[in-house]
Design brief:
Layout: H1 2-23, H2 35-55, H3 62-79, H4 95-107, E1 113-114, E2 119-120, E3 135-136, E4 139-141, E5 146-147, E6 151-157, E7 160-163, E8 167-168, E9 173-189, E10 194-208, E11 211-223, E12 233-249
Helix pairs in contact: 1-2, 2-3
Length: about 250
């Protein structure tokens, strides 16, 4: 593939330049410490490739292209001891989400509804554009005796809080889907309600009743022992680009 050829070419060029500078005493360079340099350059090359493809209308993505370019550049600056930035400091780049949302608003390519924070009674006020629903804000389902119904929730950025110990849950299988670019999802389940969780996070962490997964591109699937045997149950499908998912039981 062309991108890997470009990556190898750029890698050889940079390593060669660093070796020359090391030989003349301008920098300190140790071949045993090249792993971070390699993946830093990889992110930069991937980011540049996606940006160029986007600008030339050959696919690509300006959002992910710019993100990987910035991320790789910061890692390179750390490698050169200019700043301190490690791989797991990627979470510090979350303000870029605000920048991306602002750019999309200016470009007019996305329809976004800004929602006020506040308690929800199980009813979400959303404005639909075509087949998509885009919101920014918090969603709380914790009013006494709120009725659980099938949900499909999509947000650009925002937090979700579900307290099913206060809910009225009908005797049936209820699917609940949450998709968000960035945010946190917190769920409290009663012990007498069966449920299944299929959770994935591109960057962040997942914790379901003590079972955890964190890092990059993580997935965790969990279901209670009685899930297949009962009629009343909840089926969660949760996907976040960045954030955290937590499910507790009381």
């Amino acid at each position: 593939m062309k991108i890997f050829r470009y990556f190898i070419a750029v890698l050889f060029i940079i390593i060669g330049i660093l070796l020359v500078l090391a030989n003349v005493g301008a920098v300190q360079f140790n071949l045993g410490n090249t792993w971070k340099l390699i993946y830093s350059i990889f992110f930069v090359v991937i980011g540049l490739k996606w940006l160029v493809d986007f600008l030339m209308k050959k696919g690509g993505s300006w959002v992910f292209g710019s993100f990987f370019l910035i991320f790789g550049s910061l890692l390179l600056l750390d490698w050169f001891h200019i700043i301190y930035f490690t791989f797991w400091d990627v979470f510090k780049l979350w303000p870029l989400l605000i920048v991306y949302i602002g750019v999309m608003l200016i470009s007019g390519k996305s329809h976004i509804v800004i929602e006020h924070k506040g308690k929800r009674s199980g009813k979400t006020k959303e404005k639909k554009y075509g087949n998509s629903v885009f919101t920014v804000g918090s969603h709380e389902y914790n009013k006494e005796n709120w009725k659980v119904q099938p949900m499909s929730l999509r947000t650009l950025a925002g937090d979700f809080y579900f307290d099913f110990t206060k809910a009225f849950i009908p005797e049936k299988n209820i699917p609940i889907t949450v998709n968000s670019f960035a945010g946190d999802v917190n769920i409290i389940m009663p012990e007498n309600v069966a449920f299944r969780v299929e959770a994935s996070v591109n960057a962040g962490d997942i914790e379901v009743l003590g079972q955890t997964a964190d890092g990059i591109n993580r997935t965790l699937i969990y279901e209670t022992d009685d899930y297949d045997d009962v009629e009343r149950k909840i089926d969660f499908k949760i996907h976040l680009k960045a954030g955290s998912i937590r499910v507790d039981q009381v």
